[in-house]
Model the fold of this input.
Amino acid sequence: MAGQPEHVLVVGAGLAGLRTTEQLRSAGYQGRISLVGAEIHAPYDRPPLSKQVLTGDWEPERIVLRSLEALDELGVRTYLGLRAVALRPGEIELSDGASLHSDAIVLATGVVARTLPGQPAAACTLRTLDDALALRTTLEKIGSLLVIGGGFIGAEVASAAVARGVAVTVLEAMDVPSGRALGPVLGALAARLMTEGGVDLHTGVRLTGFLDAGERVAVALEDGRTFEADACVVGIGGTPHVDWLADTGIDLGNGIPCDASGRVHGLDGVWAVGDVACWEDAVYGDRHRHEHWTSAGDQATVVARDILGADPPQPTVPYFWSDQFGLKIQLIGRSDLADDVTALHGEGMTGGPLRGTVAGFFAGDRLMAVAGFGAARFVARYRPLVAAGAERATVLETAAALSNR
Done:
């Protein structure tokens, strides 16, 4: 593709897709932009689905990121309620049989909620606005809830249900909840947060299947125990939405493989952003999918500039948060690269209060990530140290200085 494209086609109207269109215009692009979305709704913010929308504190209008009128004013033509079903060179085929042609295509189709074998219709998932509204209605009518999966979505659903007076049981396959993101040490703190919040938590369990329980939902475990509740939510992560790309010949084992600028390996004129995209890490050399809100916007900026041939933005540090049981859990950096966790602030890691606890994740002597429980004023101060891969001594000196203020 020589020069700037005449038409940029963005497939996926979530945060990553929307931000790509906005960044294209912000960078001065004057050509055509089309935005395809499988849902009928205008682009909306997903994090509140398991928080403020589910609790009833917010109505759907409050999470709209940009209305259809505002998209039209931005010069973005929308195709909502339509799925992409095939990708060919310079062309996307839609579920209504129509095709859209473009000289630059951005894939932002996100993930779909993972389900369990034999999962009944009564066991719901939470990924879309419609899912959240249906579950909110359910929570208004039930007395007990079974949550399968103790990750951030499961924990946030449990938190919202407890706040409504619902008795909640959480079943988690790993030894600690949120273990993949937080590791075993801080995952144990997430477990404390759940149980202290009133959840009946069971970890290290394996389901053998769902049982017939009439209008209720029941599951059986390998150890012979059974659990039953008025309703059930399955929150066991998401699967990249890539089945429609099966004929492209690219490796889709962990999302869409991209270089550090979002260009899809093996496909000319195609980029990918957001949860579905598996980008090369320019710093650490591996390939990684970041299913986080801030990463979607950061990647959109990189891709928009790459499409237009502009200089790339400054590198950013991965960040995510989770609001549950009255605390905000935050993590900056890549905890998956660490081999050691060290307390920096607070007493949570020694059995004390969770609020105010901050820990550093180190690989050898280098800081890879920092996580905090109800400690936003501390966590933000470590962002430049994480970005620089600061030495342990420097991190500990910073922690001492912050604690003495």
Observations:
- The longest helix spans residues 179-196.
- The CA atoms of residues 169 and 263 lie 43 Å apart.
- The longest strand covers residues 366-373.
